[in-house]
Amino acid sequence: MEALTFDTRVPPTKPVVICRSNTYPKGFYCSWHLQPPPVIPTECDVSVEHNQRVLPVEKDPVHKNRCHVRFPELFSSFPYRVNVTAINALGSTHTVVSFEEISIVKPDPPERVVVTPIPDRVRHLEVTWNNPSTWPDVETFPLKYFLRYRPLIRDDWQHMELTDTTRHTILDAYAGKEYIIQLAAKDMEIGTWSDWSVAVHATPWMDEPKPITPTTEAEVIMDTETIPSTAPPSAKTESRLASGVSALISSSHLLLASVMLFIM
Question: Do residues 147 and 168 lie in contact, with contact meaning Cβ atoms separated by under 8 Å?
Answer without folding.
Answer: yes
